[in-house]
């Protein structure tokens, strides 16, 4: 492993749990602890704990913080209250995606932006170039640890650690203590399951992580790596930057219009997105399921099967779905002529394997 890679505060702790480490976004990160399928199923059926301390945390503070954030992102932060978080995107002036992110609204004078580690340099340059009002900007990424607790037993596990967050609603956050350490806790995640994302100072990370692991043992909690994190988010149709999102795609093409407030007074990229909405969106992101035995992967060509077999799009993500027992994927295809039930071909090493477009998300948890 490259010694130049950054290490999270939980690096040794997760290695002691048997993590297989890989290079990811400049960090040494766990890809798996055992079987990716077993870790995936643990999150779907019990609970999993993730070290996601590589994520980026940018803070905007001052009397113009809300205005600055609301210009940078596509969603409307005035539509949520203090103590709520909101999924959003940052776009270029051309309407293409710089990154997707979670925005934490503490108050009109204090905003937290949580962004992808792999996009940090791009995000930093974009934000600093487009702050249109005076605001205090702080990067606390290297000082902040983050742990995600996900799964149907996540709430019970957290309650066994502390009852302080038992009334926290989905997409809300609050501050409190875990194992005696100050934490920011949100009811959110990137798996399609219920759960929490927990932020704390680096020197608190091991104590917080260990307290959750200990409380989770009777509930089947397992440590989970990046491999299962990817299969979980794909089943839930949660986009990944560099796959579904990029500087060549817009939120409207990615079918994320629900996170774009076109009626907001202004935001970076609004004019381009309003024009695209008016003129028509030529491509769209769809989910598909393989009907022939084959595993789709990022970058594979998508072939239309009606008439001449020509390349019409590209796979953005694909994998065997542990929950569904089938091979699934996401792809960009033309807006016209490709609806649920349409057969398509996936070109894999020169061979065309059949698939069909299906409704997404592939998996949606029961909320009973």
Can you tell me about this structure?
The structure is a single chain. This protein is an alpha+beta fold and 368 residues long. The chain has three domains: 6-53 and 142-235, Probable tRNA modification gtpase trme, domain 1 (Gyrase A, domain 2); 56-141, 2-Layer Sandwich (Alpha-Beta Plaits), CATH 3.30.70.1400; 257-358, Elongation Factor Tu (Ef-tu), domain 3, CATH 2.40.30. The protein has eight helices and 20 strands. The chain has helices spanning 11-16, 36-45, 65-72, 120-130, 154-161, 205-216, 226-235, 270-279; strands at 6-7, 20-24, 27-32, 47-51, 56-61, 84-91, 97-107, 110-115, 136-139, 144-150, 173-178, 181-186, 195-201, 221-223, 283-290, 301-304, 311-320, 327-334, 343-348, 351-358. The strands form four sheets. It has a six-stranded mixed sheet, with helices on both faces. A six-stranded antiparallel beta barrel has the order 15-18-17-16-19-20. A five-stranded antiparallel sheet has the order 6-7-8-5-9. Helix 2 (36-45) crosses helix 7 (226-235) and helix 5 (154-161) crosses helix 6. The termini are far apart. The mean pLDDT is 97.
């Amino acid at each position: 492993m490259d010694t130049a890679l950054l290490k999270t505060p939980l690096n040794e702790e997760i290695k002691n749990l048997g993590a297989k480490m890989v290079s990811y976004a400049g960090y040494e990160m766990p890809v798996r602890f055992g079987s990716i399928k077993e870790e995936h199923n643990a999150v779907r059926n019990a609970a999993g704990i993730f070290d996601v301390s590589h994520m980026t945390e940018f803070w905007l503070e001052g009397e113009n913080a809300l205005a600055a954030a609301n210009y940078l992102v596509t969603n409307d932060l005035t539509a949520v209250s203090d103590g709520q978080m909101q999924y959003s995107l940052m776009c270029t002036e051309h309407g293409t995606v710089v990154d997707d992110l979670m925005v934490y609204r503490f108050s009109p004078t204090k905003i937290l932006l949580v962004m992808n580690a792999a996009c940090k340099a791009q995000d930093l340059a974009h934000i600093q170039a487009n702050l249109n009002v005076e605001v205090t900007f702080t990067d606390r990424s290297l000082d902040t640890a983050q742990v995600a607790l996900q799964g149907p037993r996540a709430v019970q596990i957290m309650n066994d650690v502390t009852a302080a967050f038992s009334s926290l609603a989905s997409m809300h956050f609050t501050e409190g203590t875990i194992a005696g350490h100050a934490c920011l806790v949100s009811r959110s995640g990137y798996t399609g399951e219920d759960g929490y994302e927990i932020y704390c100072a680096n020197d608190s990370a091991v104590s917080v992580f260990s307290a959750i692991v200990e409380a989770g043992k009777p509930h089947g909690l397992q440590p989970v790596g990046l491999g299962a994190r990817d299969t979980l988010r794909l089943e839930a149709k949660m986009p990944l930057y560099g796959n579904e999102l990029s500087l060549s795609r817009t939120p409207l093409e990615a079918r994320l219009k629900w996170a774009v407030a076109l009626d907001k007074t202004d935001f970076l990229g609004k004019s381009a997105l309003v024009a695209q909405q008016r003129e028509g969106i030529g491509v769209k992101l769809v989910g598909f399921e393989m009907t022939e035995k084959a595993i789709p992967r990022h970058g594979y060509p998508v072939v239309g099967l009606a008439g001449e077999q020509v390349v019409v799009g590209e796979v953005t993500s694909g994998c065997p779905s542990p929950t569904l027992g089938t091979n699934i994927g996401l792809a960009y295809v033309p807006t016209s002529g490709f609806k649920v039930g349409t057969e398509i071909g996936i070109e894999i090493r020169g061979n065309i394997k059949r698939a069909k477009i299906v409704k997404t998300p592939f998996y949606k948890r029961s909320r009973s």
